[in-house]
Amino acid sequence: MSEEIDNAALNVPRAIFTTMVLNGSTGFAMVLAVLFCLGDPETVLKTPTGFPFIQVFADGTGSKTGATVMASLVVGLAWCAVIGFLATASRMVWSFARDRGVPLHRYISKVEPRTHIPIVAVGLVTIIPCLLALIYIGSSTVFEDVVSLSTSGLYASYFIPCSLLLWRRTTGKIRPYLSAGPEGDETNGQTAAAQAIGISISEDSQADSDVAQPLLMWGPWRIPGVLGIINNGFACMYILFVLFWSFWPPATPATPETMNYSVLMTGFVVLFSIVYYYVYGKSQYMGPLIEHQVRGFARKEL
């Protein structure tokens, strides 16, 4: 989505930071309120409603009506969050399909000409979760094992860029931040913009996109020097800590019903991805594609 945002190098980090501050503060306040109204943890966990948070609402308000209203607010917020997840997931799937990095990329990357919406990508990220939800009808254990993949997959997706950025930092392979060239110098401005997004200026106007080269340059939003290395190192260690414990069962002794099979699901996805890449993907995926229109936006920003 950053490709479609003006001055993304500044606005995207600002949006992420602002979201963390607002959601973090309100979430912490919510946690404190729940803890003060929790009561007996065993009673809450064994609630006949099947949802401990509803029991907390009922105990806190002392009214079924109040608990119902508060639970409805949670459901409404979850519905709004799903809309954001859907937009993000469909955009990521479409972008990766455009870069020829997923199976059936020719179909998934199609954009409906009238609405300019990637209908296939949106349908894909909508239908697959609905089908996975049907697993719960047959076995709640299998469903929870499939859903547990989201935790390990999420933190693994964080670890990859964090570790690569740490490696680039420590080896000095990130170029200093440069703005556009002198005022009125269009050539220097285009060259600086091309360096910033990792592509080379080409005179070929027939191609729709270029393959981004592995050239990194610091942007205006960064933590410089040793503080940045410490920040990235702490992030990598924290992610590895979470990943390690995410594969363990919640209680011992583990039984087939309580066993955590997320390590199996994660291993299967990793193995499938490796096999797919060497069998077919490496002949198609050459790197992130930078469309000419997006490149023009980058030039204007710098």
Walk me through the structure.
The C terminus is likely disordered. A two-stranded parallel ribbon has the order 1-3. The protein has a two-stranded antiparallel ribbon with strand order 2-4. Helix 8 packs across helix 11 and helix 9 packs across helix 12. The radius of gyration is 24 Å and the shape is globular. The longest helix has about 35 residues. It starts with 7 loop residues before the first helix and ends with a helix. It contains twelve helices and four strands; from the N terminus they run ααααααααβαββααβα. The chain has about 300 residues and is mainly alpha-helical.
Draw up the topology in text.
Blueprint: H1 8-36, H2 41-45, H3 52-61, H4 64-98, H5 105-108, H6 119-133, H7 135-138, H8 140-171, E1 174-175, H9 186-197, E2 209-211, E3 216-217, H10 225-246, H11 262-279, E4 289-291, H12 292-301
Parallel strand pairs: 1-3
Antiparallel strand pairs: 2-4
Helix pairs in contact: 3-4, 4-6, 8-10, 8-11, 9-12
Task: Please describe the structure with a list of short key phrases separated by commas or semicolons.
302 residues, mainly alpha, two-stranded antiparallel ribbon, 65% helix, disordered C terminus
